Amino acid sequence: MRLIIFIGPIGSGKGTQAEVVAKKFGLIHIETSKLLEKKFKTADPSDKKMVEQKALWHAGILNDPSWVTEVLLDEAKKIAGEGKGMALSASPRTLFEAEKEIPVFEETYGRDNIFVFNIALSEAESIKRNSGRRICEKNRHPIPNFPEFKDLKICPEDGSKLITRALDNPETIKIRYQEYLNRTEPILNYLNGRGYNILKINGEQPIEKVSEDILKNFND
Ligand SMILES: [Zn+2]
Fold first, then answer.
1. Span from the CA of 162 to the centroid of ligand 1 (angstroms)
2. Is residue 67 part of a domain?
3. N or C terminus of the chain: which is more exposed, having fewer CB within 10 Å?
4. Residue 93 domain-assigned?
5. Which tops the pLDDT comparison, 103 or 59?
């Protein structure tokens, strides 16, 4: 059983790469926001914490980080219990989450089976790729602003219409990139301190080349 974690700024394509390794190695790709959405849909109305978090979600307010971590770890244990590995593209997102999650992951998967990829992307490239990126109407699949997707009119996964969001304007992307530097990147130091060999990948290459650089770290 393997756990593959992707850490990188917005636009680094970590979700896409997590999909690639999930398909290749038969892993479950977990994106925290999608996991929460699924949980809320099947929420038990007597679960007070869940109801409270669902209300925050619908109001567009960030969910309680310790609760999010709990939900993710529950899911991780369930997946491991079924004998399956995981690919993570959106967590841990903060040092707080990493400190809670990594020790549990180590217990579950064993440190030698945990791979951490840092997909590096400059701020300028992040802004260029994300300004004017599109998402699909049905499942919010992201379509980055890459030349290879320029002529795409519908979502390649579900055929729904592609739309742009106000959130994807250059100023907002700049803030999100800074958030990444301040809150997410410190995780790399933490993992270094725990003895991990972080695999740094140049995220400014075409998608297939990034996948190639990732996959060549595995022997099978
Ligand atoms: Zn879609």
1. 8
2. yes
3. C
4. yes
5. 103
Spacing, Cα 32 to ligand 1 middle (Å): 17
CB-based burial label for 112 (10 Å; 0-12, 13-18, 19+): exposed
Token pair of 166, please? 């106000």
Q: What is the domain count for the chain?
A: 1
* Closest of 116, 111, 105, 92 to residue 214, by C-alpha: 116
Count of residues making up the chain: 220
Domain that holds residue 198: 3-122+185-215
Regarding predicted confidence, which is higher, 72 or 144? Answer: 72
Residue 179: inside a domain, yes or no? Answer: no
For residue 100, report the distance from its CA to the centre of ligand 1, in Å. 32
In a domain, 135, yes or no: no
CATH number of the domain that 89 lies in? 3.40.50.300
Dump pLDDT digits (tens) for 12-44: 999 999 999 999 999 999 988 889 988 898 888
| Contact (CB, 8 A) for 71 and 100 | no
What is the whole-number distance in angstroms between the Cα of residue 26 and the centre of ligand 1? Answer: 21
18 CA to centre of ligand 1 in angstroms: 16
